[in-house]
């Protein structure tokens, strides 16, 4: 019975359950010994991908980049602690905290749903008065999940950040994505500005302005307009802002097992 | 032991337990949770190089690696209350960074579906080397080796690539890989097998070329 490739791989990495038996077999079986030698040679050829060196201040730069986005733990404690004994329990008890996040998510979803309903009624009633066509198909209702929206926005911004300015092929998909995101972003803004989250509202405002420019650039996107958009994006630290919000919202949604709803189109 | 084989259960540099570092890390975490946000800066400075190294090896891209490092520290900060005092912060944040880097690769892969057809082209598997074993040709071959290795790594799925990087380059054990990827050790082992098999298949032309020289 020969040694299988899997056993050889395990043996190579030193995790074999029965190394003595494998080594004994390899010593007495030229065929397996040859196969094992080839495996060792192949894996020895795969060099360790060396990361480009970062200078000694790299860690400080990482800290400088993320520090503004981090809340202070004690401030949260004081804020909650001032409310009474239940607030202290909320802070220290993970179950209560989980329930709190779930309740917050549920409240957000309810607000978004309610806002979406009102928005639908407001937009559909005048249309019905002007042109009451019975055959007119109902507008499809698309639920925009804030988490997904921020995720898509982040991907868009990363694409924009790394966009090859000489490539006309990238410009069209970028503009199409900007148009699609713009519509979703406006719904999110409309519904979420009402919530007490100024950070989110500001980020969505910045995003709206950038998306509007990307979507409506006369004559489509070109090297000049992409560079301008990249400058604006960098000036507002928009990618980072979106990333921070997405991380926060994802964490909250996971805690409450409920995605944050942004609104309806 | 066979010559050239890695020693069993070698811990990766990032996972090496260092008592003094542990104590410093735990002191910093306590300070952060007591309201000293800047104490987290010390943790960031201490661990960012290690995180960048593993993120770069997984993503193969400096920009993505830097993003993954920032995201890992952000996630880490937000989850700091859930960090167990008995755990090693270096190991914990390292796992978060692996997840962030893996997410980057998955997202990039999902946007690169068109490229798969190109990389499956058998013509591309051929290494173009000159017949004469002169210096410039050898240099050319070493360039080809690097690029072929990168192609081979890119041909793996995100999980296979991460498992291979953690096993082959970071010296993680199967159990550690499973913990870092959030999968069972056996699944981690299978991911390493598949990765090694695919890498060997992709690098077979290289073996042929070096033998001919």
In short:
The complex is a heterodimer of chains A (265) and B (213). Chain A is mainly α and 265 residues long.
Describe the structure.
The complex is a heterodimer of chains A (265) and B (213). Chain A has helices spanning 5-12, 19-28, 30-45, 58-66, 73-81, 85-92, 94-130, 146-161, 168-192, 198-216, 223-235, 238-256; strands at 143-145, 261-264. Chain A is mainly α and 265 residues long. Residues 76-88, 127-143 and 257-265 of chain A have low confidence and may be disordered. In chain A, helix 6 crosses helix 7, helix 8 (146-161) packs antiparallel against helix 9 (168-192) and helix 10 (198-216) crosses helix 12. Chain B is an all-alpha fold and 213 residues long. In chain B, 70% of the residues lie in helices and 0% in strands. Chain B is built from 9 helices and no strands. In chain B, helix 1 (19-33) crosses helix 2 (39-59), helix 7 (158-169) runs antiparallel to helix 8 and helix 7 (158-169) packs across helix 9 (185-212). Chain B starts with 18 loop residues before the first helix and ends with a helix. Classes of the chains: A mainly alpha (265), B mainly alpha (213). At the A-B interface, helix 1, helix 3, helix 4, helix 5 and helix 8 of A face helix 2, helix 3, helix 6, helix 7 and helix 9 of B.
Features:
heterodimer, A: 265 residues, mainly alpha, two-stranded antiparallel ribbon, 2 strands, 71% helix, elongated, disordered C terminus, B: 213 residues, 70% helix, 0% strand, disordered N terminus
């Amino acid at each position: 019975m020969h040694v299988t490739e899997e056993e050889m791989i395990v043996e190579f990495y030193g995790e074999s359950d029965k190394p003595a038996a494998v080594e004994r077999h390899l010593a007495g079986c030229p065929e397996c010994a040859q196969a094992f030698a080839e495996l060792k040679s192949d894996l020895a050829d795969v060099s360790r991908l060396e990361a480009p060196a970062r200078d000694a201040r790299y860690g400080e730069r990482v800290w400088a980049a993320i520090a503004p986005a981090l809340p202070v733990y004690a401030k949260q404690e004081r804020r909650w602690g001032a409310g009474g004994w239940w607030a202290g329990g909320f802070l220290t008890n993970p179950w209560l905290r989980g329930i709190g996040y779930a309740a917050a998510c549920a409240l957000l979803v309810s607000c978004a749903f309610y806002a979406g309903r009102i928005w639908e009624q407001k937009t559909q009633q005048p249309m019905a008065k002007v042109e009451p066509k019975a055959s007119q198909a109902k507008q499809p209702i698309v639920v925009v999940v804030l988490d997904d929206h921020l995720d898509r926005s982040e991907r868009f911004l990363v694409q924009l950040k790394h966009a090859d300015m000489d490539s006309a092929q990238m410009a069209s998909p970028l503009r199409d994505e900007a148009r699609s995101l713009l519509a979703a972003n406006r719904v999110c803004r409309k519904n979420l500005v009402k919530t007490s989250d100024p950070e989110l509202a500001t980020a969505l405002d910045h995003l709206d302005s950038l998306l509007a420019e990307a979507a409506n650039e006369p004559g489509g996107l070109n090297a000049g307009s992409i560079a301008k958009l990249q400058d604006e994006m960098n000036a507002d630290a928009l990618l980072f802002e979106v990333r921070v919000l997405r991380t926060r919202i994802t964490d909250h949604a996971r805690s409450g097992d409920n995605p944050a709803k942004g609104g309806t189109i | 032991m066979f010559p050239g084989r890695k020693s069993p259960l070698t811990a990766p540099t990032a996972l090496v337990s260092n008592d003094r570092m542990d104590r410093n890390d735990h002191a910093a975490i306590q300070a952060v949770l007591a309201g000293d946000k800047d104490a987290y800066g010390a943790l960031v400075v201490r661990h960012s190089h290690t995180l960048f190294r593993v993120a770069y090896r997984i993503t193969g891209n400096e920009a993505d690696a830097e993003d993954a490092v920032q995201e890992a520290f952000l996630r880490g900060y937000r989850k700091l209350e859930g960090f167990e005092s008995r755990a090693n912060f270096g190991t914990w944040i390292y796992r978060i960074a692996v997840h962030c880097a893996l997410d980057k690769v998955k997202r990039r892969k999902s946007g690169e579906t068109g490229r798969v057809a190109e990389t499956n082209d058998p013509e591309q598997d051929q290494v173009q080397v000159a017949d004469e074993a002169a210096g410039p040709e050898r240099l050319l071959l070493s360039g080809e080796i690097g690029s072929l290795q990168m192609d081979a790594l890119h041909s793996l799925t995100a999980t296979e690539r991460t498992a291979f990087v953690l096993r082959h380059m970071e010296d993680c054990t199967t159990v550690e890989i499973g913990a870092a990827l959030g999968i069972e050790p056996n699944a981690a082992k299978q991911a390493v097998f598949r990765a090694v098999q695919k890498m060997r298949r992709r690098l077979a032309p290289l073996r042929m070329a070096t033998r001919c020289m």
